[in-house]
Every structure is written in C-alpha cells, then in structure tokens.
Amino acid sequence: xxRHLLGxxxxxxxxxxxxxxxxxxxxxxxxxxxxAWYLQGSFPDPGGRTxxxxxxxVTAAPRPAGPPTVASAAGSGNxxxxxxxSPVCDGKFxxxxxxxxxxxxxxxxxxxxxxxxxxxxGFGGVPAVxxxxxxxxxxxxxxxxxxxxxxxxDPAYKLxxxxxxxVIGHAEKAHGMAVDAEDNVWxxxxxxxxxxxxxxxxxxxxxxGEAGKRGDWIEDKGQRLLWQPVMxxxxxxxDIYIGEGHANESPNDTDSPDPANQSGASRIxxxxxxxxxxxxxxGNNVGxxxxxSSHGLAIDPKTGDVWIGDREEYRIVVYSGDGKFLxxxxxxxxxxxxxxxxxxxxxxxxxxxxxxxKLTRDGKxxxxxxxGMGIKEGQFIEASYxxxxxxxxxxxxxxxxxxxxxxxxxxx
Length: 412
Prior knowledge:
7% of the residues lie in helices and 34% in strands. It is built from three helices and 31 strands.
C-alpha cells in the first residue's frame, strides 16, 4: 500500500508538472526588437450590420436570428455557404473564431487615428481601399443591390464619383481591390469569381473570369475561369497576380461534378498587363511552399517576389515573381493582408486580431498599429486590405464595419 501511494504521488507530480508546463503564456516582454505582447479576447462580429456617425463612431445592429445568410455572414466567422467538403471550414474542428484569444502587440509607433470620410448611409463593410496617383481614395464596399459599391474620394475626402451596378454589375462578395500604374481600378468578387478592370473615369474595361462560374484556368483548352479570387497585385513591369482560394470560407472542389472545376486548391494566376496568361502555381495545403489560402497578396518592390498570406494557417509564403518557392514564415497572427510601405518595408494586417504589423523580411514583428478587435477608435473587427500613401499614412477599411480609418504617421 505504501509503495502504491508513493507511486500515485509520483504520477500526480509528473502529470501536474506536465500540465503546468503546457499552460501557454498570456503576455511577453519586448525582446530583440519585437514589441511586448499580450492576449486579448474576441469581440462579437457585426458582419457589416453597423451604422457609423461622423467621426467614425460605430453602432452595431443586433444580429438577425436563425442561420447565417450570405449577406449577414460574409466577413464573419459564421460563413458556411458551400463549405461541405472543405476540411478547414470554421467550426468543424476546435473553437470558433469568437472564442479565440488573440495576440496583440504594444502599439508604440506613434500613429493617430482619424475618420475624415463619411460613407453613404446604410449597412455594409469596407473590405478594401486603394489610392491612385493623384491622391484620390477608392473605396470598395459591400452594399445591397442597387447601391453603388465603388466610390471615389478626392484628397480632401469629398465624394467625386460612384460606379454603380449598371456599369460593373453587383458584387455578391466584394473583396480585394488595387490600382495599377495607369490608375485603373481592379475589383474582385469572390463569390462571382471575377476580376474587373475599371478606368479612372468609371468605365468597365476588362473582365477576367466568368460571372457565377467558379473553376480552373486551363490555357491550352481556352478555359479561363477563376476560383474564389480574393486579392490582386501588380509586378514592377505591370504583370498581374491574382490570389485565389478563400480557405475557411471556400468549398473544396476536388470532387466537383463540374468538369471545368476540378483542382480544388488555392492558387496564384500570373498574367501580363494585357491579361495574357503566363503561368500559375498551387498551394495544396500542407508543407513547405504550400498554402491553404491566398488571402493576402503583395509584390516586394525591391525584389519582385510574391508574398502570399495564408490566413488561417498563420503563415506567409514567398515565391519569386516567376513562381519558384523561396521560404515560409510562420506567424502568431492571422495573415489577412500584406502590403509594402513607401520605403519598401513589408507589413501585414492581422484580420480579426485587429492590428497592422510592421515586419522584417524574415517575418519578425517590429512594430504595430491598432488597438485590437472591436468597434472603438483605433480598433477593427477585421483589419484587411489597406494602402500607404507616400508619407506612410495608412488608409484602411474594415470588412465588417462601414468606415474608413486614416492612420497618420508621426511627424519626423
């Protein structure tokens, strides 16, 4: 009996010690150039159902009862449309997004938050913004049918142009946007699987993909379909890169009955500036050089390398401009979007972690802007696609909130 009790005590000590060692830390000090960090809980995602008063003051409307719809769930952690065959759908394994504790870095870069733009009234998050060469700000918003989704504001933040459904059609799920070197605006509709090129004057110039037909690009068969396009970026010579595959919100089409839609993997489509096919490469989910999604996409202005944000896998995957794998960088935050500042430095938006993080080219966090997930000043429900001006001020929407935040860099 004595030996038995001693054995139980020894096992208890071992198990207790193992459990004690497995408890993750909830904060950490600044170290080797990385800011101090801490864990912060999630905030209920309004899914775009917000009203925004002058000055960026947000009021969230009650969420509708019952199962989420495309309109109510887009941009939230509850989206389920067409997700039956994907192993990475939210809620299938582990806790949902609203249960997560999120890594927050101490924001000590000195940026201030302003809300100078009053968007048209009504619900609708802002998944993307972009700047043209004249300093005009383009805003891409998720709005009901019949309400313009593409808006242009001058440098004084006055609305000067809207582009309506009669010109560009209605985006079922407005997503990524970017402005090319000739000031054309490119907008992506993830659900309709199209990328559209719009002139500075608001005319539709080109559509890549076929509206409502998700599928594979097979150049030698003349089949030029897109599969859940989420972001677009441009090379130094004007080449076009389209990131496809939304991971947690995308169906896996490997068992699709549609012969035009069989690949079922995230991918990058590489075209020249006229839209002519050059090549493509695939993620295929697991391992070095792989990616389950391509939610973030940016081109390194110094090297021409393609940076891919694999959001749900918390990693950045880097390829050369011609599609050769270079390296993978594991992160501690959702890699929702990627961008390079006016000095050529890499940054990432951490999605529902609610911050913009300055990085080294090795993926080390060396600075942060933002106060985490929420609807107060300096907070974001989903910090996503944003843009820098020449002074390194940041302009950002919020996928789940109808406001634009301008983050002013401190004066040098």
